[in-house]
Design brief:
The complex is a heterodimer of chains A (100) and B (237).
Chain A: H1 14-24, E1 26-30, H2 31-38, H3 42-54, E2 58-65, E3 68-75, H4 77-99
Antiparallel strand pairs in A: 1-3, 2-3
Chain B: H1 2-47, H2 52-65, H3 74-97, H4 110-127, E1 130-132, H5 133-155, H6 164-181, H7 185-204, H8 209-229
The chains are: A alpha+beta (100), B mainly alpha (237).
Chain lengths: 100, 237
Amino acid sequence: MTRFKELDPILHSQLRLAVMSLLVGIEMAEFTYIREQTGATAGNLSIQITKLKEAGYIEVTKKFRNNYPQTLCSITKLGRQMFSEYVNDLKDYLSPEKLG
Amino acid sequence: MIYSLILSVTKKISVNIFGLYYKLLYICNIFIHYSFIKVNIIMENEEKVMTGEESLKIISEMINKTKFDIRQGSFYLLFWGWLIFACSLSEFLLLKFTDVIHHYYVWLLVIPGVFVSMLYGFITGRKAKVRTYTGMLYMWIWLGFFISATVLFIVHSKSMYTVAPYILLMAGLPTFISGFLIRFKPLIAGGICFWVIVLVIYFVGPASYSLGTSVAMLFGYLIPGYMLKNRVDHDAV
C-alpha cells in the first residue's frame, strides 16, 4: 500500500495556497493587488497573510505612499521551498489516481 | 405638584434613555451575532478540506494572473522611437539641404528625453501594485543598455559622428532579448533589423548614418511599439 506524505497544512488551505501561488511568480505585490486577484475579504486575507508570515513563508513590509499605508508582500526562500515541496507532494498524491 | 412634574419628566427621560440603551444593546447583539456567523462562514470556507484537483486549479489560476502586461513596454519604444527618429531625420535633412555646421546639436534633445523617461518610470513604478520578474528583467536589460550607451558616448565624445553604428548595434540586443522575453515576434524582428542596418550603413559609409538610424527606429521601435500598444489579445507573459 502506498503511503502518502501529508500535505503541508499551512499551504493546504484555499486562500493561503492562492496567496502563495500568486507570490511565487512575482517579486513583490501590494495587499490590495492580492485581495483583487484572490477575491478575498480584507479581514480574511489579513488573517491568512499573518499565518503565512508567522510560518516564515512570506515577508510583509509596511510602507507609506502619499500618506497612505501600503502593505507589500513577498515570498521568502523557505516559502518557495515549501511551495515546491507541496506541489511535489500533490503530484505524488494525484499520480496513482491518474495512472489508475 | 412640582414634585410630580419632575418625577414624570425624569421618568420620561429615563424611559427614553434606557429605551434607547436597550434598543442599542439589541442592535449590537444582532450585529455581533451576525458578524460572528459571517466570520464563521468565512473561516469555514477558508479551512474546508480541498481535493488535490482543487489545489492544482487554484495554483494554475493564480499563476496565470501574475503575468507581465507586455503593453507596458510600448511607451518607451514609442517615445524613444519618435525622439531618435526625429533627431536622426533632422540631422539628415540639415546635412543634405543646409549648410549648418553644428547639425549634431539636434541630438541634445536626448537629454530631456532621458529625464522624461526616468520620470515616467518613477511614476509608473510608484503606482504599480505588483512587480513581476519579467517586468523587472525587462527594466534591467534596458537600464543596462542605457548605461552602456552613456559610457560609449563618453568614450567616443571626440568622434561622435562614428558612434551611430555602435549605438544601433547595442540597441539591437535589448530589443531582441525583450522580444523573446515577452514572446513578441515583431520586436525580435526589430532587433534583427538593427543589426542588418548596422551592416548596411557600415558598408555605405558615414553619410548614411543619420538616415540609417531613422530607418532602424522605424522598423526596430516604432512599428513593433504600435503593434504592441494595439495588441489586445494574449497581452501577458
